[in-house]
Amino acid sequence: MIDNTAPKKAWTSAAAEELYAMKSWNAGFYGVNDKGHVAVRPIPGSDLEIDITEVIDAAIKEGCTFPLIVRFQDIISARVRRLNQTFRETIAEAGYTGEYRTIYPIKVNQLHEVVAEVMDAGKEFNLGLECGSRAELMATLALIGDDILMLCNGVKDHSMLTLMLNAQQLGQQVLPVIEKYSEFEQLLVLADQREMPRDTDVRLTPRLGVRMKLSTRGSGRWFESGGSGSKFGLTVPELVQLVHELEKRGSGDCLELLHFHLGSQIADTQALRSAVREITQFYADLHLRGVKVKYLDVGGGLGVNYGGNYGSGHGAGHGGAHGGEYEEGESSINYGLREYANVIVFTVKEICEQRGVPMPTLLSESGRAITAHHSILVVPVIGVHQPDNPPKCEPPANPTSVVLRMEAALKEAKAVRSRGLLMEVIHDAQDARMEAGQLSRLGYLDMESLAYVESVYWSICRKVLHKFTALHLNPAPAEQAELETQLTDLYLCDFSVFQSILDHWAIGQVFPVMPLDRLDEEPTRRGQVVDLTCDSDGKIDQYVSSHANKSWLPLHEYRSNKPYYLGVFLVGAYQEILGDAHNLLGPVGEAHIYASADEPGNFWIEETIKAISIKDMLSQVQYVPSDLDRRMTELIRRKIEAGVVKPAEGMRILNNYTKRLEDTTYCDTDKVHNPGV
Ligand SMILES: *Cc1c(COP(=O)(O)O)cnc(C)c1O
Questions:
Q1: What is the mean pLDDT of the chain?
Q2: What is the rounded average pLDDT of the residues 548-562?
Q3: Which of 172, 288, 406, 644 has the most beta carbons within 10 angstroms of its beta carbon?
Q4: Which pLDDT does position 95 carry in this prediction?
């Protein structure tokens, strides 16, 4: 239990919003309504509100299963508009004479519906696309007309370069962004081999851009994407050589774009300002020598607030796969959209004015900032395990000294109330527990006594934590935080960290998690979310809340007769495509939601996507479902012949196996009912 020794105030929706620090991450889209349900306001400036529990009910009626990704398509367009409007306002205020365009890097979320929504919302802002691999290029080439600017970063082989040249021949605005000098050389060779429509000696030079290796490095987790040691980009001498080569061909103007990318989730704007300065000077130099670059592309990295360091004065100190590297702020950023736009627009303007060159069209390749907010992963809790609440044990008839020691500690725990004595009690209890473990391993303590010692130990822990909490110690002693973490219930949830929030496991990315209903009720338990995988890393161990200790999440007491759903928020960027099939759990189902004031509940489901079936998942790892079925039939036939099962029962077992192949890979949340109860 979370101790509640402070005077009791009525629990309100506002208290729930505060507890889960929603303001730090919701970007205005999420809140709690009067019914205590999470409410979504997908359209900024409108008070149109959608109750998430109604969406869940409707999705279940449509046949959706859990875990479920709920996409609010309107949030994607809201983010596109917000980004572009912010830049437009900044440009107007600065008196900047160029324009701004967003380039959506599809690697962030390639789902066709997401890309289509981004393009739709971006039409009025001339939004473009970016791709980074051959498959991404193939997907986007067919989506764009002649009016959409498309950039191709990443490693480009012959066939990719050829596809881009073909697109240019067709009149599409596809720009290869040269990352290595050899790509440029190959591009020219391939371009010169093209067959031109009219008899002409002119060797048409392809339009292109260049990614620069700047000396500025970003900050934050992805800082290695920038800087001179980065894997990508041309050095300054290589840029100079490339320009000479183009000028020799009389086609300096084919260099249309200069680009840098500092890495994702730029933590502050200092590095950005420095990189923008650096590249704008190159831009000005090129202009003054007659190479009239049109676009200045500041790459991705516009950050998203995940609420990671909300209210804590210290770093998150999260392990993850890169133990201990996770510093404060990497799940948060310290700037807003407006500051981001200001830094870019004003910096470029100032340098262009100083150097007397025209102001370029500004591009940013913002992916995370556009897609992160739009989707919620809905996961049902399917059970709760309380390691600190073992079944009641009887005291042994002949207590040994370690048993007596533990009992004495319990008596102490009940009696004392000062900080110092509480510390002493808990240290005593820990020591006695250790001793009991050792004695048991050596055969000097029987199983019944060990069980009793263990159950008394947990009683002491609960008692001591209760008393620590009542003291309102500030700062709380390490022992208190440790007890909080130990006295935490494990909420088993129907999902896989490795499929749905891989970055939490891989880099310790913090995602906001909270219950989707019962928020009109004060949560009284400390919980930790664990997933279905057999992997001890399959858990969420850092949360966003207003509590100082973020290793647990305040949750409601679980009642097995009523569904209890948790939402994992801000999962719309990168997570879906990075996810893997650990334990063959695989892709989850989806429901795509549009807001509309004309519909009951203010929404309609535009589409649902089924979760992967066991059959399809198995096919991906080379099990042929018909072959499995055949083998199973054979096995059961032999058992029937041998008299192990009766024919009818054998057929029931076989039919059940066959039917289960069509199921989804996640849990079947139906309970087994005991007819005797
Ligand atoms: C990944 C990537 C992006 C997207 O970055 P976000 O942080 O999602 O905005 C943009 N440009 C390049 C070159 C990238 O590799």
A1: 91
A2: 92
A3: 406
A4: 98
What confidence tens digit (pLDDT) does each residue in 574-607 have? 998 899 999 999 999 999 999 999 999 999 999 9
Average pLDDT over residues 105-125: 96
Spatial neighbors of 457 by CB under 8 A, at least 6 apart, are 406, 429, 432, 433
CA of 503 from ligand 1 middle (Å) equals 16
Which amino acid is it at 138?
Answer: M
Superfamily of domain 1-66+304-323+366-383+488-611: Lyase, Ornithine Decarboxylase; Chain A, domain 1 (2.40.37.10)
- Rounded Cα distance between 204 and 410, Å, is 87
The alpha carbon of 31 and the centre of ligand 1 are apart by a number of angstroms equal to: 29
All residues at 6 or more sequence positions from 154 whose CB lies less than 8 Å from its CB, including other chains: 131, 132, 133, 179
Q: How far apart are the first and last CA of the chain?
A: 29
pLDDT tens digits, 375-417: 999 999 999 998 788 888 889 999 999 999 999 999 999 999 9
Residue 2 has what DSSP assignment? -
Asked, as a colleague might, if the bond just before 475 is cis with ω within 30 of 0, I would say: yes
pLDDT of residue 391: 86
> What pLDDT does residue 321 have?
31
pLDDT at residue 317 in the model = 33
The total number of residues written for the chain in this structure: 677
CA of 367 to the centre of ligand 1 (A): 6
pLDDT of residue 323: 31
Q: Is the minimum distance from the CB of 261 to ligand 1 under 6 angstroms?
A: yes
Unique residue bearing structure tokens 């470029």: 348
Domain boundaries, the chain: 1-66+304-323+366-383+488-611, 73-265+282-301+335-365, 401-485, 628-660
What top-level class would CATH report for the domain 73-265+282-301+335-365?
A: alpha beta
Rg of the chain's alpha carbons, rounded to an integer?
Answer: 30
Write down the pLDDT at residue 268: 87
Ligand 1 in reach of 153 Cβ (< 6 A)? yes
**Ligand 1 centre and the CA of 298: distance in Å?**
10
Q: Which two tokens stand for residue 402?
A: 């370690």
State which of 177, 264, 575 you would mutate to test the pocket of ligand 1, scoring each by most atoms of that ligand within 8 A of its C-beta. Answer: 264
The structure tokens listed for 152 are 């191709």
